[in-house]
């Protein structure tokens, strides 16, 4: 798992390779007219679902196309109100996920075009989908997905920008700015990885914790969900993710000195809303670890356990903010003595429903 976390920057470089030409994005795999898409559905499981949540926000914000996302295990058995002009995006590392395949079949029966984002070439989902984009992450052995999650995020960002480019929903200069930011995202991830020693020390300090909350707003919320999943998978710690604004709607009753809280602060426009939530948690005596963007540090200075991530456009922050959470989950597992790469009861590809 640790090796694969550090493989992240190279996986991003490989996934980005060949996608830009003359400040334009290129997706020759997409055999459909982007202007005709009036709604997008996204289906995935686990980490893929969390990537899809980020993708939904990016696509809606950059293109104005409505996006609906569901867990594939639920999507396959609901009444979907398909219409002409719809597109289904399915996301799967293995390309063999049973629930995601069921969602794919549902769209096929309705005659809806399907775009698959997968990592394994020639997998079942890749063969059955109408269009395929491969995440060039390479072989991922650890059951807890890390580098593939990064590449899934990157593909979704690139798709969102490509749709915006083709639909002309962004000014040319803004589109160019986003493309340039993505071109150096591998360097930002490498900076986040340099926090490894501090994260290891914090994990050692709190490795006996048995309950954890992960909090965030905006793009930080789906990253919090992924962080909670990583901790559960690898360390067997009960962990839940909440949108920070939901604390007062029940979860705050669980806070005490035995609860570990990891709070994400990467969204400039939401920091004034997020910090009062974190400060209230502090007043309840919970242990707090803050993952804070460098330019927002003035809001987080009172928190001793502070992991600083490099400055980055809030849109792309999930690609960087997830790195400390992946490293934290890894070291928590190491210090707790669990089988990091092969957690109990889990398999790399869930091929049965």
Question: What do you see in this structure?
Answer:
The model has no long low-confidence stretch (mean pLDDT 94). The chain is globular. By secondary structure, the chain is an alpha/beta fold. It contains 13 helices and twelve strands. The protein has two domains: 2-183, Rossmann fold; 191-336, Glucose-6-phosphate isomerase like protein, domain 1 (Rossmann fold, 3-Layer(aba) Sandwich).
Mean pLDDT across all residues, rounded? 94
CATH architecture of the largest domain: 3-Layer(aba) Sandwich
How many DSSP E strands?
12
Count of helical stretches: 13
What assembly state would you assign to the polypeptide chains in this entry?
single chain
Classified by CATH, the class of the largest domain is Alpha Beta
Proportion in helices:
40-55%
Q: Could you give a short account of the major beta sheet?
A: 5 strands, parallel
Order of helices and strands: HHEEEHEHEHEHEHHHHEHEEHEEH
Fourth-level CATH superfamily of the largest domain: Glucose-6-phosphate isomerase like protein, domain 1
CATH topology of the largest domain: Rossmann fold
Q: What count of domains describes the coordinates?
A: 2
**How large, in whole angstroms, is the Cα Rg?**
20 Å
Structural class: alpha/beta
**Beta-strand content estimate:** 15-25%
Q: Give the low-confidence spans.
A: none
In short:
The protein has 353 residues and is an alpha/beta fold. The chain has helices spanning 2-6, 8-16, 47-63, 72-75, 98-109, 124-128, 147-167, 172-183, 185-193, 196-206, 220-235, 271-283, 318-336, and strands at 20-21, 24-25, 39-44, 67-71, 86-92, 114-118, 131-134, 211-216, 238-243, 260-265, 287-293, 306-309. The strands form three sheets. A five-stranded parallel beta sheet has the order 4-3-5-6-7, with helices on both faces.
């Amino acid at each position: 798992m640790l090796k694969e976390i550090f493989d992240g920057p190279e996986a991003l470089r490989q996934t980005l390779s060949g996608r830009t030409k003359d400040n334009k994005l290129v997706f020759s795999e997409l055999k459909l007219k982007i202007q005709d898409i009036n709604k997008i559905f996204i289906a995935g499981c686990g980490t893929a679902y969390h990537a899809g949540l980020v993708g939904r926000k990016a696509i809606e914000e950059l293109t104005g196309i409505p996006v609906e996302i569901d867990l594939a295990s639920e999507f396959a058995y609901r009444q979907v109100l398909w219409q002409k002009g719809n597109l289904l995006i399915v996301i799967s590392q293995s390309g063999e996920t049973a629930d995601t395949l069921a969602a794919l079949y549902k769209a096929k029966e309705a005659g809806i075009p399907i775009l698959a984002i997968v990592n394994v070439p020639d997998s079942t989902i890749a063969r059955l989908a109408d269009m395929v984009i491969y995440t060039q992450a390479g072989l991922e052995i650890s059951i807890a997905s890390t580098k593939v999650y990064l590449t899934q995020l990157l593909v979704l960002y690139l798709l969102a920008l490509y749709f915006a480019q083709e639909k002309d929903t962004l000014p040319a200069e803004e589109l160019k700015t986003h493309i340039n930011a993505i071109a150096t995202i591998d360097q930002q991830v490498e900076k986040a990885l340099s926090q490894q020693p501090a994260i290891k020390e914090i994990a050692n300090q709190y490795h006996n914790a048995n309950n954890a909350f992960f909090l965030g707003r905006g793009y930080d919320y789906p990253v919090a969900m992924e962080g909670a999943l990583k901790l559960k998978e690898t360390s067997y710690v009960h962990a839940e993710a909440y949108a920070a604004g939901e604390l007062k709607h029940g979860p705050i009753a669980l806070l005490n000195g035995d609860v570990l809280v990891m709070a994400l602060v990467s969204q400039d426009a939401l920091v004034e809303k997020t910090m009062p939530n974190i400060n209230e948690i502090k007043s309840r005596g919970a242990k707090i670890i803050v993952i804070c963007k460098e330019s927002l540090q003035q809001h987080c200075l009172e928190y001793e356990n502070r992991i600083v991530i490099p400055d980055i456009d809030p849109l792309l922050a999930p690609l960087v903010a997830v790195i400390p959470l992946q490293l934290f989950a890894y070291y928590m597992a190491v210090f707790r003595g669990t089988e990091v790469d092969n957690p109990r009861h889990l398999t790399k590809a869930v091929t049965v429903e």
